[in-house]
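Table 4 source record.
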Amino acid sequence: MSYLYLLPGLIIGLTVHEAAHALSAKWLGDDVAWRQGRVTLNPLKHLSLFGTLALFVLHFGWGKPVEVNLYHFKSPKRDYLISSLAGPLSNILLSGLALSLLHLSWPDWFTAFLMSLFMINAILALVNLIPIPPLDGSKIWPCIIPGMRPVIKNRMSQVWLVVLLVAMYTGGIGKILTPSMNFLKGIVYTVMDDTETYTERPDDFPDSLVAPDNAVNTIYKISPAKKNRADGYGLYYTLEQPYPCDSLISSITESLAEQGWHKTVYVLFDPNELSSDQWATLQDEKGQFIEWTGTWINEFSEWVYLNVYYEVESETLIPATAHISMYQNTDKMVILYRALHPNEMPVIRDP
């Protein structure tokens, strides 16, 4: 279902990408793609049957390549570079347009669509700069770097496609894409974040997020504040008195269960890359700490996310100050989370 959710953005991205190649080639004097009917925004002219099926099987897809004849260009190397760059540049423009529109208020379904359009087109632009045939990077960089040949023979395309798939599944391309994906996610969260903070609990705050009387450094957050209906709530507080770890977790989780929240378990991996329902000992620049995380869902598909971490004494490892973070997200933010974490599979488990 996650890939079906991203499919509209992919279809638009691939269609505009290939149409940009064809149109730019036509403008530069090569009418091969134009005579083949590729100067169009009709997706059926640009989508590859096997490339589309591969999206669901291999989680990687492609469109039908646009044919060009270098001998039709007045300046073959320069014009080939321009026509090759047209595809990734069109994806960058689409991604920028979607990101700009995300600043505005839209219905949930259209916000989800813009999310798909932004992420998919940014990824298409990035991937197509990799210098491996049949990606555009194999045509772009040889036109820029002296001594490289910009023409790749078609009979080698299948071999290079296998090399590309192997690079994906062995993690080679992941080393490029993972930091880039994290960067894109950060952009999205920054754009969509419009938060107001309070030191006193607002009257309309969810019952699931209540700080105890002895909490200090308490902060309540509502986001986005500019809309009539908030999509996310946050609660942050500190307990300076040492608390038994499991007792603290139990006091919070029992309250959630009484309110009708159901514990969720992630089949593939936890959203925080930590093991749910157990404490983990971690280290950062400030020293050692122990951390626990968990998520809950209710009948309205709203989520509560809980993170607890204790500062610990460096020598005795005795828990000291406790820091508690809780978030409640509405169905809109759940849709956003699902789009950014398509491989996670939450299942409900009642306590």
